[in-house]
Amino acid sequence: MISLKPLAYRMRPKKIEDIVGQQHLVAPGKILARMVKAKLLSSMILYGPPGTGKTSIASAIAGSTKYAFRILNAATDSKKELEMVAEEAKISGTVILLLDEIHRLTKPKQDFLLPHLEKGSIILIGATTENPYITINPAIRSRTQIFEVKPLSEHDIDQAITRALTDKENGLGNQKITLTPEARTHLTRATHGDLRSALNGLELAVKSTSPAEDGVIKLDLAIIEECVQKKALVQDKDGDAHYDVISAFQKSIRGSDTDAALHYMARLLEAGDLPSIVRRLLTIAYEDIGLANPNAAAHAVQAITAAEKIGLPEARIPLANAVIELCLSPKSNSAITAIDEALADVSKGNYGEVPAYLRDAHYQGAKKLGRGIGYKFPHDYPHGWVKQQYLPDKLKDTHYYHPKDSSRYEKALKEQYERLINFNE
């Protein structure tokens, strides 16, 4: 019976237009939409975090093309299951095979699949949470296109919740259900772009909550907190507390207030919001500390790696180390200021021709075009440096980097930068 299947399974899209999020792949005119429209599907690998729609994309592609669709797991399903899919492909012509955990595909299974991928009888859609450029065998990788599937936005999750609550055929539309605004906001936010977790939490809340006297299942913040096992930061009617705490977290580190930064991180930890802490710390390390203390940024990356490996609650320990060091480090935003100034020039069209002597001179006929002629190779000079114009003529006197004296390290960079700028032969 359909009711025995999880809500997340029942709400999988039947065609590509129904996919929630991933508009960089499935919106009209984008690559997967074009493949489906042209009926020119090729094997692919979808990689990204759990619950972001890899299986849904595969299911929707199959539904949009009317091809047979099968799901196997590279780690647990045997070569025999692959052989059955290949036999089905002989009969039906083409089978779309979603192969989950494709990074765990063994050599014998890979060798069996390759000729079927070459013929096109099996269109492989590999799904993985691992970086395919590192974990996928080159033989498979060379025969597939690789697409990144990104975490869903809060708007995407909210859209999917609305569908689930109103869909009478596959969703919860036949039941009377109300979600308080605070509960809905928490459901869209606490699952950090994982739609499967959001729908699982919603379904558990509905099934475990008795209807009120009027027959309505009323879901408040406390119920949703329990069902997704994540606490809200505070119960605020505007739903801004989450972003307010994250903002205060970064500004406290930027302002070198160790105690305030630890306090705000504790609030995020209590809410189980490890992803927000990780993203914010990485940004802070390079945006606010930057060249004033590059070691602090490296240490922050190491702490985040450890935190993600060990998970909560132990993750709090390396994260606390990182926060304290970042707070007490000298601060410099010279790097972000420099790149933003350069980007502003480029976005305004304020750039000129690359000097001819800097252009690629490795192809036949380049010298006839004046490419590379007059280029001074720095390694041919005593100090590995020679004065030479690298910027286009119209920008030759432009300076984007404005170093600070916030630390001995950046002060040394400043001295070297100014020495090179002012060098006279």
TrEMBL record:
GO terms under biological process: DNA synthesis involved in DNA repair; DNA-templated DNA replication
InterPro entries reported for this sequence: AAA+_ATPase (IPR003593), AAA_assoc_2 (IPR032423), AAA_ATPase_RarA/MGS1/WRNIP1 (IPR051314), ATPase_AAA_core (IPR003959), DNA_pol3_clamp-load_cplx_C (IPR008921), MgsA_C (IPR021886), P-loop_NTPase (IPR027417)
Pfam families assigned: AAA, AAA_assoc_2, MgsA_C
GO MF terms, alphabetically ordered: ATP binding; ATP hydrolysis activity; DNA binding; enzyme activator activity; single-stranded DNA helicase activity
SMART domains in alphabetical order: AAA
Domain AAA+ ATPase residues, every copy: 40-152
Superkingdom classification of source: Bacteria
Family that this chain belongs to: Belongs to the AAA ATPase family. RarA/MGS1/WRNIP1 subfamily.
Protein's name according to its UniProt entry: Replication-associated recombination protein A
Organism: Ligilactobacillus apodemi DSM 16634 = JCM 16172
